[in-house]
Structures are given as C-alpha cells and as structure tokens.
Amino acid sequence: xxxxxxTALLSASTLILPATPWAADPAAGxxxxxxxxxxxxxxxxxxxxxxxxxxxTQPGQHANTGKVIEPLAPSVNPQRLTDAAKIEKWLRRxxxxxxxxxxxxxxxxxxxxxxxxx
Length: 118
What we know:
By secondary structure, the chain is mainly α. It has helices at residues 2-11, 26-34, 49-52, 84-99, 105-116; strands at residues 60-61, 68-69. A two-stranded antiparallel ribbon has the order 1-2. A hairpin with a 6-residue loop joins strand 1 (60-61) and strand 2. Helix 2 (26-34) packs across helix 5 (105-116).
C-alpha cells in the first residue's frame, strides 16, 4: 500500500519523498490486532481477535455469521497474503466493521507485517 503511494508519487513526477523510509511495524500490528474498539451501536467492543482469534495458525469464526474463517497465518495457509486485491478488499471491509473506519496505510502495513510473522 505504501509502495503504491510511492509509485504514484514517483509516476506523477513528484519529487517529494518521505524523510525516513517507510517500514511496517509487526509489533504495532500485533498491538492493533488485540486492541478493542467501542461500537457506535452500543454492541460489544470488537477487535481483530473477535473473529480471527489470537492464534492465527488456527481457524477463526465470524462473530455475526458464525462462518469459519481459515487460518490467516501464511505458515499454515500459504495462499494468504498472495493476492493484493483480496488483501485490500478484506482490510477495507474488516477495518470498517471492527474499527468503524477504513484503516490508514500505516495500520494496514502494520497488520500485514504482523500476519506475515505468524
């Protein structure tokens, strides 16, 4: 995601580059993964663990539908994190549902960095 922004800036012949290189932070992703977010409708606070659990090598279960979610850990499910369109789709949907807004590029990068360590 951040690379897309960098690509867009570079392809637009913009010479503005960040002073420091972008680096995703798996620790920040892990912290965001377990953080609970209050819900505007008064329902129970949600976190990523609500549906995916804390152990990403295990299946999760959607809190509303009960649908089983295959493990997110690439070490168990090599198909994870291989399709950029799917990653963007699910991060957009899940961030809105869990956090109540779309995640920032930094948050997305941190979540992906964390998931990659699993």
